[in-house]
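Dear colleague,

As promised, here are the two records you asked about, laid out in our usual form so they can be pasted straight into your sheet.

NAME FIELD: protein one
SEQUENCE, THEN STRUCTURE:
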Amino acid sequence: SSPRLPSDRKLCSALLFSAPRSSHLGLIVVLDHRGMGSEGGCSSFVRRSKPYIAMVCLQFGYAGMNIITKVSLNRGMSHYVLVVYRHAFATLSIAPFALILERKVRPKMTFSIFMQIFVLAMLGPVIDQNFYYAGLKYTSPTFSCAMSNILPAMTFVMAVLCRMEKVDIKKVRYQAKVVGTLVTVAGAMFMTLYKGPIVEMVWSKNAHTRSSAKPSPADQEATDKDWVKGSIFVIIATLAWAGLFIIQAFTLKRYSANLSLTTLICFVGTLQAIAVTFVMEHKTSVWTIGFDMNLLAAAYAGIVTSSIAYYVQGLVINKKGPVFASAFSPLMMIIVAVMGSFILAEKIYLGGILGGILIVAGLYSVLWGKYKESQEKEASPIPLAMKSVEMNGEPDELELQKANNNKEMNSSLKQAVLTHVKVKEETNV
């Protein structure tokens, strides 16, 4: 058999990365013919699996946050106070890394950047978190997680309204985004307006049977009103989070230190949340927190979901892209449904299941459109750079850099291929 040459493996890997899809089969055959040792194959499999394992672990982390927070809210903790403590923990856990890792690359703070950070803090820690926790209090963890899956669709709508994204309805990827958005909104409305009968889970049947006392008509009406109110709160929270993504995209172009930006958003958001809490909560006793579930909820949400999860998700997005990371969000809904029925004896309604299916279907339609769009951008960086000249009067530096890098890589690959073919011909002769 042919000797296994590291240079050949690197060459074929590079070719596989840059070659058209139609030629992948031939390159895979070359890789297989050269043979990759079992040790290399195993390490390669582990390396490729890391993003998947990381995202699955993140979904368990997010699911745990929803369950623990729901327990804390049910025990009487004010969601305004929870937001304050959560982002105080988040600030303290992120700040050291931002100060150390970005001390040489942190841009100069200006008044306009500070005002953008102020708005981001208002949208994220204050509006989004308070409305989400209020919605979680009135509904259930599974319902809130399912509704939060409308985020990509809402972000797409806002991007179109802000002219950050254009819609060419003749292209399939834009059709997928539009249809996915409509289906997602339909699913959210279905979940809000229709509860339906309770769907019994095998493991929670006994728990529901023990607590199956039929509520009075007045109590049932109050519960239904709370459900609709909670649904509206979660939708408002999702809209605020989508707005944060839009403004953050503008801010990161001028303030590229990501960790520092997150630290400032959490810090300013903590101060804003304190002011909101003083207005909404007039009893000083609400601030009291001990070594109990309230402290666990605040620390877990701040450290795990606002710090560790942010860092890990950033690594995954940097390696695999935002579409890959977003594709795992429905898994959290399933985990929360199982954990909620176990721990909280949560009742799952038919309307929630059907609406959740519609939301997930719409989500993947939007993500598929985004994936196709990212493929086209990677395939044609030079036209994209020129397009930015037409729109803004100046080229997009990032797109030009990508174009130059691709040009240099293609030139190097071409030279490597010619050398490789020449050596093989001389060997055959």
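NAME FIELD: protein two
SEQUENCE, THEN STRUCTURE:
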Amino acid sequence: MAVDFPLVLYDCHFEGLSWKQEAEEVNYVLSALQQHWTQSAVKSHVLHGMIKGLEASGGVSSNHCWLVEGSRQRNYRPLLERPCCESLESRIDHFVKRGRLEREEGENGGDAVHRGKRSKHSHNSSTGPVSSELPPAKQRGCRVFTKMFLVGLTGGISSGKSTVSSMLRELGCPIIDADVVARKVVEPNTPAYSRIVHHFGREILLENGEIDRQKLGELIFADGEKRKLLNSITHPEIHKAMLKEILFYFLRGYRYVVLDVPLLFETRRLTKFLNHTVVVYCDPATQLSRLMQRDGLTQEQAEQRVAAQMPLNEKRGLANHVIENSGSREDAHRQVLRLHTKLEDSMDFLLVRVIAIAATTGLSGILLYAAKILIS
């Protein structure tokens, strides 16, 4: 039987799906699964059957993983479904020994990357090799292209923005988290660190010399002028660091990059560069409840922190896309899958390609004209 590539299905591919749901819901998952894996189609009824099998065994657990393999005759069929105590690495070793996967060292000496090997009997052999990076699961989903566009993701405190960001990351989308970047640019011995200590004093420092984010947060949430001062120090450094990461993903050929920015609409410095903006919304009562529970705040403290940000209703009116996150995680997950599919099929990418082709054609014409002059 002609086999293309092994495929690993993790729990995140099944989250929020059930046997009774329509094939449309499953197809959103398939659009993410199919990007790098094979030239055979993954049929929705096959995935339905796998979901049914998972539910019959007691539902999806954090220890469950499926290995399946594809063929031109049967598309995908479950393979090597083994007890949870057997590690994923041992199952991958099985494929390596069979010559169906090649093991390579990951970037910077990191995790090993496993790439599928094409069977000599595989169909459509004229097409270039398709790579499948098995672990980690987060590196799947976004297709790889030579140009890309930017998507801004924002929300309010405790609206669930980080949850949505994690879901997109699990689909393989590159995420640039402004909060993570913000922590890096204020590390000791950086320009922003020195200016913050100069303006806010050494009492905001921990014993190890790092900035105590909780103390600094208490200062700026209580004083609007201090908040503006801090933003004027950190935002330029954050934007420079984010630009470096954007260029990194651009050179790697990703279709789109998600900029996870809490104050996206407050600062408005990045919005002019974005093709799409996404707001994670939840109703005010849910937002307060989550914040009080998460941070152990009183209602007054929580209301003060929410009031320090632009209201979610206002952000909702400024965004191109809204993820409604007042309900269950499963409902939010389905919305994220739909959003990912829309972005993957966006006309913005086609426009970028047309402009790039036109520019390349124009440059080629100029070079050809110059060459003719030199030759003559």
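A couple of things worth noting about protein two: The radius of gyration is 24 Å. The beta strands are 3-9, 66-71, 75-79, 101-104, 113-116, 149-155, 175-177, 256-260, 276-281, 321-324.

Best,
R.
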